[in-house]
Write a structure and sequence with these properties.
Helices cover 78% and strands 0% of the residues. By secondary structure, it is mostly helical. The protein has a single domain, classed as 3 helical TM bundles of succinate and fumarate reductases (Up-down Bundle), CATH 1.20.1300.10. The chain is extended, with a radius of gyration of 20 Å.
């Protein structure tokens, strides 16, 4: 079969990122990341059930600067995925589907992610 000179579909490098596409990709990424967060949480709970010395080790890891960084990132991911999930529920009900509403709700998701993360960490650090 001879190769035909057909135009190829443009790939991601051609398109300018839009808030809708970026938030969609981030929703998928945070969904996958939550699997690893649950694995870490399960490890922490299993360590608590296994042995006090082993739990102290896992707790020491979680209490380190790197542990706090991971927990902070997980909090942001969880708040984002939660907020965007609520947005998707509205879409499933047929609400907020115009381009202007989609963009506004996208910025609302980002704002609610920041607010929820700050509130959660304010409660943790108090």
């Amino acid at each position: 079969m001879a190769a035909k000179n057909r135009p190829l579909s443009p790939h991601l490098q051609i398109y300018k990122p839009q808030i809708t596409s970026v938030l969609s990709i981030m929703h998928r990424m945070t969904g996958v990341a939550m699997v690893f967060v649950l694995i870490g949480l399960s490890w922490w709970l299993i360590a608590a059930a296994v042995d006090a010395e082993y739990f102290a080790f896992v707790q020491m890891l979680a209490g380190s600067w790197f542990g706090y960084l991971v927990i902070f990132a997980a909090t942001i991911g969880l708040c984002y995925h939660f907020s965007n999930g609520i947005r998707h529920l509205f879409w499933d009900a047929g609400r907020g589907l115009s381009l202007q509403q989609v963009e506004r709700s996208g910025y609302a998701v980002l704002a609610s992610t920041a607010i929820l993360t700050v509130v959660i960490w304010a409660l943790i650090l108090v």
